[in-house]
User: Fold this.
Amino acid sequence: MLENLAALALVSSLAFYVLMGGADFGGGVWDLLARGERAAAHRKLIARAIGPIWEANHVWLILAVVILFTAFPEAYATIVTALHVPLSLMLLGIVFRGAAFTFRAYDSEEDKTQRLWGRAFAIASVVTPVLLGMSVGAIMSGRIVVVEGAVTSGYVASWLAPFPIATGLLCLTIFTYLAAVYLAVEAEEREVQEDFRKRAIVAGAVVLVALAVVFVLSFSGAPQLAQARRERALLAFPPPLLAIAFAAAALVFLARKRVFLARLLAAAEVVSLVVTWGIGQYPYLVVPAHTIADSAAPSATLRLLAGALALGAVVLFPSLAYLMKVFKGRKAFAVLDDYRRKTGRLKPPPDLGS
Assistant:
């Protein structure tokens, strides 16, 4: 029972990371793609949206890692051993992305310097989600071979295969889609809002195409999951059907310029996809090497973890809610706007990382 609750907490933390941190990575993608006469306005909006919260969003990834190595140490050891290359590159991408984002705010305001840091920030924002998705695809594929507790193969072939590559691209498209929808809501200028609304429609359609590709490749790329999906059809099919329904509804609301409702539906769509992944992989943590039951830590450890998570939630959720209330409201940057008018600066002061 406790091990299943720990697995649920693991999936939930990843879902929060996708909804919040994932949108930050997607913002970096749109920063890279910003073109035209409103490119500067696009980048300004992206910086404002990400600036106050981008570090806080990584708490969900940290939480997922802590749950994994505390509650499922054997599975954690297998994952970080077999996938040390993509995971190390992913962590480097997170570090470089954060450093570039900060240096762009603090370093020289000359165009050449700004372009350098902006390009580094954007490229890291593209590469990191792909590596994250490829790692998830490798865990699902069954290509990681474990014999007597030691990884014997799958160091490269597990993540450099069509199915993991497809899941990596799917992860990137989901992050990009979420960012476009969120930015359409946060934009105050009508023209900028329209730009991101249209981009969200295109990105949403691309997500559906990427989902179809992953589904088709799963039959050969993750055969054990495909078999489990057939055996648990009644349990496995409602979440993806919900995801498709939410996706269609979000696109309809985007087309009707109801961007706030579209944001809620896009978030529900992504949560449904994460739930689909969790149900499809259950009871495995690493297919087929580790199940939730056989890799779980002792009951005493799981009880302590459950208590820590309960106490942490009391602190974490109100703190994040207050953070959002302070920095994501329409008046949050009024002081910064006054500062720019008085000083003539072209960007906000660096305190918020914009």
